[in-house]
Amino acid sequence: MSGGVRFDARMVWPMPQLLVQWIAGADARSLVAGILLALALGLYLYNAGRLAVIDVRSHLLPNRILAPWSGAALVLLGAAALLAGEPRVLLRAVTGSAILFGAYLLLHLLAPSGMGLGDVKLAAVLGLYLGFVSYMHLLWASVLAFVIGALWTAVLLIARRLTLRSSVAFGPFMLVGAATALAIPG
What we know:
Elements: H1 15-23, H2 28-58, H3 63-83, H4 87-110, H5 117-133, H6 135-158, H7 171-182
């Protein structure tokens, strides 16, 4: 982009800072890239809230939410990256999606009762957002999800609200871990 705030794919900006930089950019392409990123983040927050409630109540992450979210996130994040003149960011987002999907699929295959296919599909969507920022964010989000999930489960076990045979919805922890990772530099 000429004249505007240039996104350097080698730098790792947290999404909120990147959003402000693009919207405050000096040219129309930067502004539109910022708006598209804002829409993608708004979509994240909206769907994260819906999915967290559904997953806690029913231990399901419905395809009717995940599939359209995945497509919309790909379009919004991809268009933002291309408008910013950074096709590498789009490639990294798609690769991040594949990496996180593959990692969670492996976990599902190793322990199907511990990791559902809804979690695997959610990982693909989250990988788009995390890969958009950096590959390191994939790792941080996953670590955060497991740590927060383990701590929460330990608290519930100590409070005797759960037993060792109880199941805990993991989707909300994935969403919180990813949101936290997206807000911090890598």
